[in-house]
């Protein structure tokens, strides 16, 4: 008696529940791992899953067992050299190789490593930022693909047949195929006409010529009007629906007072803007500008990891942003976003200048300008100057924050807009 | 296999299939052939059920210890993640078979396998393991193949209901604690009762009420007759040490609610179901390997499979029975497939083609019908006794086995025996001992409950060969304390009964109420 069952069609995600439970149980560790990953990752590389490792001792399920010690006698295969009574030095590490007892114990100390999917990764990332759920789903959305016409192909579905093109190529083919027989036919016809003038119409020559003409006419008749070969189909390719491009400026104060923690918060701030842009634009360039008394354009690694000391002149960075926009990103072709992070320090005399540059020169060029001040101290003059800017410009948002969880409101207005508006 | 070649040639059939693709129809034909040969060899099996599954489903099955139904728990998710990671990295292939000790006996065929591999799996699982499940005394005593699936369905449903009623966290805590004691949920010496779903369900409600009243009664009546009690010599409760910790907790833990007791019971029953498997690794895998080898060879001899298929089979068979030596980088203990397979083959050899040495060592086997002798060996032993009975000097030589004595009082390890006349019995005995569950796992028993005082539970660890407990004991004690609800103490006593080491997990307050 025997039964053969095909179970392949049954669901394969039987373990999904248990997987979720595992993630829930180790939420704090996973969060830690995600935070570390965010630190190490490039801003533009945020949208992937992540390998997470948790120390094995945390995930372990304890059971009662023996430790190494006391008397152990074990049997092993593969003896080549020993005879009874031989003595062997105890291997290091409590018997990884020969001494038994803890034979497998040595391997168990690695971390427990597994992959988070992209969705899970972003979820943990957003958890810190306390994003509203709606925004989370918006950000997690994969790009919507839109079919776009892209010429013609020679195969496809009947609904996509392009009549004009098909008939045109049929015509071409007919002309091409009929050229030779038509020439021959014309020649034969002329020859026949000549013959008829001199010969009797029953002569064998005339007959053969006439049958040749019939043959040729038949050949012409047999050229099909339309052939599968002629069919042309409209071709559609799927492209991501937002097709505009954007440039994102990350501006950060790197003077001595910006410590690692503040930089980490700033990084999350930049990532969030990047994720938003990713959803809206097909192509995004990121420009990193750091400044103390002078501003430089740097690569991402230097941006986050190099340290400088000295005073702070914010206007230097604003000037550089403006210069870069003028040189490389004309605002007709690019949607420009600027995210600025700072701890609020600035030279007193520089702050009014910042207001002027920002309000009159920079803001008219950009889509959105977000400023965060990561500090626990009292607001300083830069903050007050910026506040004046904020009152006059809707595309300027600013916020004082202490932790990553407070970043979100900076982008509040931005996320309220639909992609269409934000893009235009 | 050793029949004369002439008649075999005549009856040589056309191969069942030549390519590597399998179809349902081919599986049916292979199954019929294998079943016919297995019947000729006298294999007695449960009815078979073959299920074709995909690789992902295989990983799902892995995660839930192979069972088609299982309650939910994060640890299964953990296993799933690690399997998935290893598989996707290519670090490990999936085992090509999982077989479930149930009636009908369910075996999984992975869709990625070739036809030859499917035939191998059918021979290995549906006839090898299946007949072992049906025949071996441990499985006959401890498990009821007909009831297990139903019971797991019941368990899953019950636990899911508890999660709804009492919250996932409480159930998870409880399951964590039970899992920690899973190996101590079995009666080692007492014969267990068999599982039966109807009985379980019918008794469940009654048990709940009755137990609760009993336990409350036990504690309530204690202080009422202090004078009488005091006259007696201080009596321990339980009167005899109890080895089944989960059973003891289920019956006597003062604070557990009825649903919690039921879950403890479920884990205990599941542990009991897996208990024989842990004791018969070598025998079970060896038996299945022996039979896939024998059946596939017979198929080949009859011409039912092609030479190409045979080579493919041999390739994977040799991988399975590979035993790397201790100095090999691949060494990872003794391979139960290799040892078991070699031992059954050796028994077969001794029966049919004994040497002078075998006559001295195994007089009862020499000249007997190998099928009957093998069948006897399969039915009546577990790993420990199987090795003690059947490991032959020839095998000890083939495997070049040697014993190493590691005594922490001595500065160096000592080779206590090798494969020579002097060492055969010694090695056989120590290898058997190595498979003795009782010496592999610490012997821990319930010793005393302080019924008149703080209700603390005292456990005893009877040291064997001065072996200490692993550090995880602290964690496990916390779990026991969580189940017991009051402080738990564990004394390690040496062979003379002297307490060497004490562990304690104090519970100050009642929780759960």
From TrEMBL, chain A:
Listed Gly residues bias regions = 93-106
Q: Which SUPFAM superfamilies match?
A: vWA-like
Could you name the domain of life of the organism this protein comes from? Bacteria
Positions of region (Disordered): 84-109
**What's one Pfam family here?**
DUF444
Give the UniProt family note.
Answer: Belongs to the UPF0229 family.
Q: What's the protein called, per UniProt?
A: UPF0229 protein JMJ54_07230
Organism encoding this protein = Jeongeupia naejangsanensis
TrEMBL record, chain B:
Domain named SpoVR protein-like N-terminal: which ranges? 21-438
- The residue ranges of the SpoVR-like C-terminal domain are 442-495
Q: Which PANTHER family match?
A: STAGE V SPORULATION PROTEIN R (PTHR30029)
Indicate what this protein is called per its UniProt record: SpoVR family protein
- Organism equals Jeongeupia naejangsanensis
* Classification of source organism: Bacteria, Pseudomonadati, Pseudomonadota, Betaproteobacteria, Neisseriales
